[in-house]
From TrEMBL, chains A, B:
Its EC number is 1.1.2.4. It comes from Azospirillum lipoferum. PROSITE patterns: FAD_PCMH (PS51387). It holds the Pfam family FAD_binding_4. This is D-lactate dehydrogenase (cytochrome). Residues 51-228 form the FAD-binding PCMH-type domain. Residues 33-55 are annotated as: Disordered. The keyword Flavoprotein applies. Belongs to the FAD-binding oxidoreductase/transferase type 4 family.
Amino acid sequence: MSSIDAATGRSPEPGDGVIRAVEALRRLLGPRLSTTMAERTQHSRGEGLPDVGMPDAIARPQTTDEVAAILRLCHEHRVPVVAFGAGTSLEGQVAAIRGGISVDLTGLDRVIDISADAMDCRVEAGVTRKRLNEELRHLGLFFPVDPGADATIGGMAGTRASGTNAVRYGTMRESVLGLTVVTPDGTIVRTGTRARKSAAGLDLTALYVGSEGTLGIVTEIQLRLQPIPEAILAAVCSFRDLTGAVSTAVAALQSGLRMARIELLDEVQMDACIAYSKLDYPRGPALFLEFHGSKTGVREDAETFGVLAADYGGGTLIRATETESRNRLWKARHDAYHAVMALAPGKANMGTDACVPISALVDCLLETKADVEASGLVAPIVGHVGDGNFHLGILFDPNDDQERLTADALARRVGLRAIAFGGTCSGEHGIGIHKLDQMETQHGPALDLMRRIKVALDPEGIMNPGKLIPDA
Amino acid sequence: MSSIDAATGRSPEPGDGVIRAVEALRRLLGPRLSTTMAERTQHSRGEGLPDVGMPDAIARPQTTDEVAAILRLCHEHRVPVVAFGAGTSLEGQVAAIRGGISVDLTGLDRVIDISADAMDCRVEAGVTRKRLNEELRHLGLFFPVDPGADATIGGMAGTRASGTNAVRYGTMRESVLGLTVVTPDGTIVRTGTRARKSAAGLDLTALYVGSEGTLGIVTEIQLRLQPIPEAILAAVCSFRDLTGAVSTAVAALQSGLRMARIELLDEVQMDACIAYSKLDYPRGPALFLEFHGSKTGVREDAETFGVLAADYGGGTLIRATETESRNRLWKARHDAYHAVMALAPGKANMGTDACVPISALVDCLLETKADVEASGLVAPIVGHVGDGNFHLGILFDPNDDQERLTADALARRVGLRAIAFGGTCSGEHGIGIHKLDQMETQHGPALDLMRRIKVALDPEGIMNPGKLIPDA
């Protein structure tokens, strides 16, 4: 097995095993096995920080059986395997840091089955969530997990993705009913069922969801779908201060108010969005909201929310019910990343992913903001506050080593602080390589159980090595 | 390790390992280690079929540290360990079929912490759900998972319990945020966090939930709680036929209507309930419903439901909003088991637990009813139809071997039929010993992964041996 060169981020010359595996894969896949520098470079990284790990070759299977054949060959030759989808992961999950084969699953792009009656579907791993939702719309159904990027469903399962709708509809953990997985030795297994619940044995589905390709390759996903609500009401509510905004969110959750989305933008982020998207919203921190239900239900929900917000210094709700006006409102939220980048051209953006119990959210955010201020860096905050999850976008000069170190240290403190508050260093982006150093603090002795499961299910250690679970 | 005697259901004379373990445990626990026949008999079985497995001794720890010490000793002496809570499991999970130590966790009965702000709590495994809800009420919170029996939270986590509220609030899978687990070698680990979601590593929490004590002993559980809704409206709706009732339930789910409970009673079960609880409800299959929300919201939901039901031959909704009238309505549902037993005094009741995609529910139920009729047995049906889960109560004469065989065969076909419809042989009761023979059909090659995980986490095979995962 080759290993990464820390100086260049490139794997060294391929060993005999890789050479033999590539030859065998070429016989299997013909032109769908590529070793061009362009393809290797494209598959060397995801989004987020530019951490590169060059695969030795890219395999482009079109069926589960081909994935199984690829894994059998890689297993035989002890060659690392990295699953690759849309390349939108943020924590270095797809970088081939120990070389080997990047298995590009975008050729597995069939929507296998949609059942409007069961409100579920089965898709291949390379289907993206936006395409799935296009195919669902005419049936009155949608797939609610929305991480922002147009990720593949396989990638979303691999990282246990969530996003803006999770406060109401759950994350991939709650949305995946079952999987087809190819194990490292090329065995094809199916986990889960199409029933909405099951108490029949160990929950292998939950084990593979969020395993970041370290236990096998997911090739098919059975998903729960949701009915498109009769009415959708979006709204923005501005606050005098962050405490008021977050306290309102917590109070709304405690009151049982059903929100489909409740997103926090701090005053730095709102300033950036107002400038970038030319909004006429008030300055200051804000909550972006969405209510799903009947026409009278969403109106009642918005009114209830408005009364609550007023108690915490919230302004009048700016509402949007028509599709176009709702889209305009949410576009400002979705453009938050670009708005931040426009603040400081040439800077890079280091994302964090803390998630804490909602009771700790105000304190954790205030401590974090003080920490940002002390660091001298600019780092706007957006948060899926209904889940207690928030992201800093730490701006730093990628050519300034000292600033990168300062940003790294700040990001690390954000994760450790979340753990100290009873939460997690990653709410939805996963671990990859960037948060490996927090896993011991996060899990303690439980980390040893993860290692034992890894060895049991991937005894040769070929599946996405160096990710998710730090070496003992 | 001793094994069960098929003829007597009793384990043979204890081996040297058991004798030495019991001596060591007596030194550790004093009078909280018992070998009396009364205690052993009481811990030899749960509810459901009278399958007995006598433990050699009962250990009554009071802390997680004591559980760890017990497991270290049992591990050292290679003695089977069975966790025991309220003894309400239905599939033989607590029977000590290979002898060994029954670890009675009812002494771990502290509610460790309740956070009204975070809407979560941490409890020891021996706390029962009713006691927890008593402690929560004054905070305006409740723990929604309601399997009927007053099970311990530890037992409910172990079997991945659900029940009547799961259609809205999820099962134990969705309610458990984290665990304290003692591994077979006596290591204490914590899984999960208090955040509502996490993407930090393998989902050990989900792996232990539903593992039926085969991987370790759960001693503490972190639970998500729910706000008590402002208004609750319960209702009963009778139908001309089963198809109409089930179709209404499916249509309601597809319309996005939020029901907190939607329970089916077939005409045999309704007849029994009407007779037993002296109800003036119409004869024929019925749906028992509950809506949670605002006062106007639940009224609107009930009206929407009524309109839907009328399309499928449903009668007028009989409503109940006050606590007392709601309790009266639900008492009839909760007394369903007793009502069935009153049909045929002296008979035993064999429960089944099929769960299928909701699109398959009508067909699966009609096939099942035809199968019951052909069997010549009486078997009323109740179902958590919002989840696609239904239970037969197959009445049989426990002293008539032929009738027992007929009942066994019927129950087995119900599980296999659910699997054939894309569902599961167990929606919520678990596998224990009764459904072991369906695991191969249920999981195929995935069963081997469960075996590998079992070996990785319980290499000596001392944790509840003979349950959940059939021997290879």
